[in-house]
Give the backbone structure.
Amino acid sequence: DEEFNELCFEFGLELDEITSEKDIISKEKGEEKAKGASDTILYKIDVPANRYDLLCLEGLVRGLQVFKERISLPRYEKIIPAQGEGQRLIITEETVQVRPHAVAAVLRNITFTKERYDSFIDLQEKLHQNICRRRALVAIGTHDLDTISGPFTYTAKAPSEIKFKPLNQSQEYSASQIMDLYKTDSHLRHYLHLIENKPLYPVIYDSNGVVLSMPPIINGDHTKISVNTRNVFIECTGTDITKAKIVLDIIVTMFSEYCEKPFSVEAAEVVYPNGKTHIYPELAYRKEKVKPELINKKIGISETPSSLAKLLTRMCLKSHVTGNGNNIEIEIPPTRADIIHACDIVEDAAIAYGYNNIQMTIPKTYTIANQLPLNKLTELLRLDLAAAGFTEALTFALCSQEDIADKLGMDISATKAVRIANPKTAEFQVARTTLLPGLLKTIAANRKMPLPLKLFEISDIVVKDPNTDVGARNYRHFCAIYYNKSPGFEIIHGLLDRVMQLLEVPPNEENGYTIKATEGSAFFPGRCAEIFAKGQSIGKLGVLHPDVITKFELTMPCSALEINIEPFV
Amino acid sequence: FTEMPTDNFVESSFWNFDALFQPQQHPARDQHDTFFLQDPAEAPELPAGYMAKVKKVHSQGGYGSQGYKYEWRVEEARRNLLRTHTTSASARMLYQLARQEKFSPVKYFSIDRVFRNESLDATHLAEFHQVEGVVADRGLTLGHLMGILRQFFTKLGMEGGTQGCRGLPRAPLTSPLFSGITQLRFKPAYNPYTEPSMEVFSYHEGLKKWVEVGNSGVFRP
């Protein structure tokens, strides 16, 4: 187990959990249900999101064996059948309206066992979830070729015209009935929306009118594959042709291992509405040339070109030295669709070398350090406010609409708040435009603490601003509240004076700060003042209105101060 | 390291994802993981010249890359969201750096709030802080990144902590903070915008096992 964990770590996989079927059922449903379940050890491995070739056991084992130099990378071969003998998939122009692209291939004389069969189905599901984006981009269909006969037609028809027996069902249904049938199916109902409201549904027929599948929902029962299937017809349909090709390549490269002629795939021809034809799978091998110095330089190692070529070959990128020994030619197999730039090759070389074998050095870059002025001001104020006897709080930047409007006696439209489109809970509907609700909620959560409660926070609020490139901006606010048996207006006022003193802002109108009595919806009438400094209003202070206090589930008087500190930077 | 300005929680998908080579069909751009905004829903302004370059690299490739080969849509890039990582601020800084007349090496850092659309539980918050670091210079290597990370963690002697630092010698590094880190190991990882990428692991004496303390990588050319 340790060894495998190490191997995974080096290769870039995460061994998440070592468990067994019995353990899994035990955890989910309790020990009783787990009795009789398999005790065989299962490894849960986390595969990076861009490595589709490692999603099934076959690919994973192959990759690791090449990495350990136990086997050499197999060469995937495309066999193009003689003219007229291969399978053909004809696409009609109706599909353009709903799912225009399709690719196909054949696995000839394949031998399945229970494990291989399960793995085959599993890989399709994993690809569906991953690169196919839950079947939205690509949907995979695999069929027993011996039960049908080509040429096959991929077309789109009105729901009422499509009728077939879906997989594992006992009778025929029309397409519209099928949509209803699977509305409650926990697995399939998530895909219904992909074609539900389209006027035409995609469907694939064979030359006798047998339905192979209605992508992306379900295959026909007639063509279902079993452990005994010998010839498989694979089709991938979807809205993204690049991904469809990658998906097809992955499936055939992974499972062609079990064909009579291992690693050989029988090609199929796809005919487009305009008459053009294309042979699939592409199984393209791409050659890239990379200079060994580049690889060495980017990683910080110095390996000879031939040892670099060896490292890359271990990562399934067959390489050899060319030129005068100053270039490496790399062959990128169809299983590595994630290699799109030289830096991907550099990473693989580094992995094969072993990240932890690279010497750690410090760059010889000389730069001058600097703190952002706004943050520097914030840090200085924080220390002094704590020294003044106030406790710092750090609250959420997202809150409910009521928090910044109704509870403060204001209308939401007057707040210019930034609103979230997809909140998971009502607590995160808008971004805060004031720090006050956060502090009041903090006090409400700490009611049992001894009085007086003196809290402050210096943090960002967010408001809409049409002058910025995104349409909103942050302001750094400072907010303090005093909660006690008496409101303590004088304490909050004193705090303001202290802060201004620290900021070296004199208490006069011309070049300093003043306060003027005003009304505020959140404040007690006659106990509210607006603060002016640097030629603008920077905030308010006062005693909070009893309504506000009650709405935040508090019971004692409270005074508050909130100002924007950005003018003082 | 100079502090970067990060005082914008609201970010456009362009700076948060597209400029960082995260494809528009990537699961992280789903409703489930990102807070998208209803109001303001779209960013009015995106840098036109740069955006054209980003569009090309995603859809056709460029700068030595094959690209993702899909149809890149500007409407998707305009969608506003609450930033999911402070790397969007790094992207903006690197863009500014690129427009300078003469290149000068830089080291940037930031520590600020990020937002992920998750359900709250014992180990997950919807808002948390990330520490981010970037180094840009000529001739930087993966070994340099590892060296900086080692120095950074060795200097940390703090308890508890919050998530993420993203450091980039053209590379990011991320980490929760643990006390007295002495043993570090690096593991290959994947990020859409860095290659090579590494996860940083440290040996936790209390739990007696290796735990992930950060994520890092060298920015893709």
Q: What stands out?
A: Residues 61 and 67 of chain B are 4 Å apart (CA to CA). The radius of gyration of chain B is 17 Å. Strands of chain B lie at 2-3, 10-12, 37-39, 80-82, 106-115, 127-136, 165-169, 184-191, 194-204, 209-219. Confidence is low (pLDDT under 50) at residues 157-179 of chain B.
